Amino acid sequence: MRAVNVGIVGLGNVGSGALEILAENAEQIRLKLGFPLRVAAVCSRGIASKKLPAGLGKIKRTADWREVVSDPAIDIVAELVGGTTVAREILDAAILEKKSIVTANKELIALCGADIWSQAIKAGINLAMEASVAGGIPIHAVLREGISGDRIQAIYGILNGTSNYILTGMEKQARSLEDMLAEAQRLGYAEADPAADIDGHDARYKLAILSALAFGERITPADIYVEGIRRISQIDFAYAGQLGQTIRLLGTARQTAEGLILSVRPALIPRSTILANVDGSYNGIWVRGHYGSDTFYYGRGAGSKPTGVAVVSDLMRVAREIRSGSPERVSPFAHERLGEYKPISVLEQSRPYYLRFRVEDRPGIIATLAGILADRHISLDAVLQLPSDDKRTLPFVITVENTSERALREAVDAMASLDFLREPPLALPLEGGL
What is the percentage of the chain residues whose pLDDT exceeds 90? Predict the structure, then answer.
């Protein structure tokens, strides 16, 4: 049977990993599909210096993506360049040429994936995007087909491997955030500018995509409250341990009676939960269904080979559709169409909270803070103070009982003017419902 021809645009980590898998695993792919999946063209700005895997045969090599998209022999275009400008041009052009598309572009899909899918449907071609979230975990397939008969109530995810590597290193090796970040950069987990990872933006894109799949609504990154890990210190892990907790950057999407609440932020989670044992650069996603209860998915969140597997698997799925199916058989967003919806503010959520202070020690501090909390009907749960010789910047923790985030933020704002504080209080939710 005639091969389905693929054009790959972008030969960075993900593109190179996918290309290597396509070359080395070609025979197994052919046996699974019943026909060959052939790389017919590759594109990279530095194509002249790229060494391609052996076994690909004679293929087109170009530095101009337009030559790939316009080639009549190409059936599927894999966009692996990232970003939102050139990548969008590539996808728009491929759709105009009526070529199915595969992408690993989390940012672009989070911002305008629903619009791209609508264009693809009108053109009668397919869109596949498994590699856009949690590289080595087939979470799209799970939400799109595997548990599609359920009604999703909540998603809790460790969605950024870089931040998780930093936090678990801080916890297990008693090292600072700055030290762990420098190591992550040396190992290639973090970019020279790590803001997308440690400030939560990368995880926010991924949560926007997962929320659209899980809840059938058009979610944009701007709908999601985001807070990064820059203020987490070694002392926070010491206090978390006293409470039987650990700290992870958690992406959460929860359906409540009032509406959907979305956030990406560091949170305390019980050490007894499976998410607490997701270490290093791994990702973990916990999905709670109304009928099927809890399921959990674990694997590499990034890397050329894990993400390359997701890209190649998407290419295989699209190739099957080209041969014998319909591009509308299963929507990449798990719903025929996404609804228009506005999630409710994270201020409406109710949780117990962890408050960490650094103060210049003096009498009456606890009474003053407790009074501010009491004025907003916030009840103290516990006060913790580990031994410290530094009385000029003394750390201690107050945990509070279930309260609204709105009330808690009002209290924290009221504390800002207190002259004994050496920095603003750090407030983290305690996610006990896992």
Answer: 76
| Phi, then psi, of 157 in degrees rounded to 5 | -135, 140
Separation CA 35–CA 292 (nearest Å): 36
Q: Which of 2-6, 51-55, 266-270, 323-327 has the highest mean pLDDT?
A: 266-270
* The model's pTM: 0.93
According to DSSP, residue 7 is labeled E
Query: Is residue 202 packed enough to be buried (19+ CB in 10 Å), middle (13-18) or exposed (0-12)?
Result: buried
Tens digit of pLDDT for each residue in 191-217? 889 999 999 999 999 999 999 999 988
139-300: CATH number:
3.30.360.10
- How many other C-beta atoms can be found within 10 angstroms of the C-beta atom of residue 390? 10
- Which sequence spans correspond to the domains of the chain? 4-135+304-324, 139-300, 349-429
- For 83-132, give the DSSP string: SSSHHHHHHHHHHHTT-EEEE--HHHHHHHHHHHHHHHHHHT--EE-GGG
β-pairing, 260-270 vs 245-255, is antiparallel
Split at pLDDT 50, 70, 90, the class of 136 is confident
Residue range 349-429 forms a domain whose CATH class is: alpha beta
206 is catalytic: yes
Return the percentage of the chain with pLDDT > 70, whole number: 97
361, burial (CB in 10 Å: exposed 0-12, middle 13-18, buried 19+): middle
Q: Is the dihedral of CA 288, 291, 296, 302 positive or negative?
A: negative
- Closest by CA to 170, choosing from 244, 242, 236, 268, is 236
Supply the CATH classification number for the domain 4-135+304-324: 3.40.50.720
Q: Report how far residue 418's alpha carbon sits from residue 365's, in angstroms, rounded to the nearest whole number.
A: 10
Three-class SS state of 42? strand
| Largest Cα span, the chain | 83
DSSP code of 424?
P
Residue 324 burial (C-beta neighbours within 10 Å; 0-12, 13-18, 19+): exposed
374 C-beta neighbours (distance < 10 Å), count: 12
Catalytic residue among 206, 305, 342, 391: 206
Q: Which residues pair with 261 in a beta bridge?
A: 254, 344
Contacts of 27 (CB under 8 A, 6+ apart): none
Burial of 363 (0-12, 13-18, 19+ CB in 10 A): exposed
The answer, yes or no, to whether residue 328 has pLDDT greater than 70, is no
